[in-house]
Design brief:
This protein is an alpha/beta fold and 402 residues long. The protein contains 13 helices and 16 strands. The chain has three domains: 131 residues, NAD(P)-binding Rossmann-like Domain (Rossmann fold), CATH 3.40.50.720; 181 residues, Rossmann fold; 78 residues, ACT domain (Alpha-Beta Plaits), CATH 3.30.70. A seven-stranded parallel β-sheet has the order 8-7-6-9-10-11-12, with helices on both faces. The termini are close together.
């Protein structure tokens, strides 16, 4: 698949372009996120698609583009992609779950200090010729308590940095996690809210986290305290947060993600939080550092290249994971099929009929599909792939090599 064409949208870092080109792929890169209809028109010319968080890969797009071989999400989350439809269509989705961990964690730490000192308000006043020199309502963070909701890669990194600054760290997670340093787990969110001066959210977008911070949770926060959300825009009830900020129950907030975000830099941004005191609003920049974007570009492009050239699906979020060694024969057959009994027997029968010699075979399945990689001697790859692809159970089939 060295002749594959790659489409990258949303201004993906040049490291990805360089990696694909070095591997022999043709690359087209766009700065913006195309709307659904435009993307459907563009995709027939490409075999690999790379996006970031704004591009919505709907059921309609994925079903209209069954010629695609793989999708790269050059970000942490994959909730912008219909993963189930991609799975049934034999499309693996690769992301970068760890590459921007440090960038997000550093932003959170900066926002903790900025909220405690009301830096956003005093800076804005100074820009407008005001001079708000006053210690009232400004605090050191040393000795305060930070509550972390979601103690995964980012949450635990925030924990380490916060503790180094003298913060006491509590965390809550629905999965039992080993504490780092002196961080302590709590049994309930209510306990976390009651004891924390700062609360930072680091959870995925799931039905469990949909508006998990609403009126009841905000009222459970100690007064005064501060809320930071750099996870997903659906996690916080924004009108409820605005109301709590107006009454002073919540002393400040830093929000980096929103339920509705502009598709590009030229579109207007509107939020109920605009104009409120001690509120920091940032345009989904938690992972937007040069270091993070460069690392994401490398990580996701590497996974896509390995899949296209070797068939390795390690790290795919919606697809059976197969980690394969270098080819042991001239032809590597790649087959995605419906997970029903008898498929391997049919494929092996075809290989036997053309007098091929199987050197190695790798298989992994999930509830919907099976993914098979087979190294074979004494066969013509394209002819074999065509025959296997005609099986009623086959979803996608191609050959790598001769």
């Amino acid at each position: 698949m060295k002749d594959a064409k790659v489409l990258l949208v949303e201004n993906i870092h040049p490291t990805a372009v360089e990696a694909f080109q070095s591997a022999g792929f043709s690359v087209t890169s766009f700065k913006d996120s195309p709307p659904e209809a435009e993307l459907i028109k563009m995709l027939p010319d490409y075999q690999v698609l790379g996006i970031r968080s704004k591009t919505q890969l709907t059921t309609k797009i994925i079903q209209a583009c069954d010629h695609l071989y793989a999708i790269g999400a050059f970000c942490i989350g994959t909730n912008q992609i219909d993963l189930a439809t991609a799975n049934r269509g034999g499309l693996p989705v690769f992301n970068a779950p760890y590459s921007n961990t440090r960038s997000v964690a550093e932003l959170v730490i900066a926002e903790i200090i900025a909220l405690a000192r009301k830096l956003g308000d005093v800076s804005m006043a100074a820009h407008q010729k005001g001079w708000l020199k006053n210690a009232k309502g400004s605090f050191e963070v040393r000795g305060k308590t930070l509550g972390i909701v979601g103690y995964g890669h980012i949450g635990s990194q925030v924990s380490i940095l916060a503790e180094a600054m003298g913060l006491r760290v509590l965390y809550y997670d629905i999965v039992k996690k080993l504490p780092l340093g002196n961080a302590k787990p709590v049994d309930t969110l209510d306990q976390l809210f009651a004891e924390s001066d700062f609360i930072t959210l680091h959870v995925p977008e799931t039905p469990l986290t949909q508006q998990m911070i609403g009126v009841e949770q905000l009222q459970a926060m100690k007064k005064p305290s501060y809320l930071i959300n750099a996870s997903r825009g659906s996690v916080v009830d924004i009108p409820a947060l605005a109301a709590a900020l107006k009454t002073g129950h919540v002393a400040g907030a830093a929000i980096d993600v929103f339920p509705y975000e502009p598709a590009g830099n030229k579109e207007a941004f509107v939020s109920e939080l605009q104009g409120l005191n001690n509120v920091i609003l940032t345009p989904h920049i938690g992972g937007s550092t040069e270091e993070a974007q460069e690392a994401i570009g490398r990580e996701v492009s590497y996974a896509l290249i390995q899949f296209m050239l070797e068939g390795a699906s390690r790290g795919a979020v919606n697809f059976p994971n197969v980690d394969v060694p270098p080819r042991l024969a001239p032809v590597r057959l790649i087959n995605v099929h419906r997970n029903v009994p008898g498929v391997l027997g049919e494929i092996n029968g075809i290989v036997s009929k053309v007098k091929g010699n199987i050197r190695a075979q790798y298989l992994s399945t999930d509830s919907e599909i099976g993914y098979m990689v087979m190294d074979i001697e004494n066969v013509e790859g394209k002819l074999l792939a065509d025959q296997v692809g005609k099986l009623s159970t086959s979803i996608k089939t191609h050959a790598i090599g001769d």
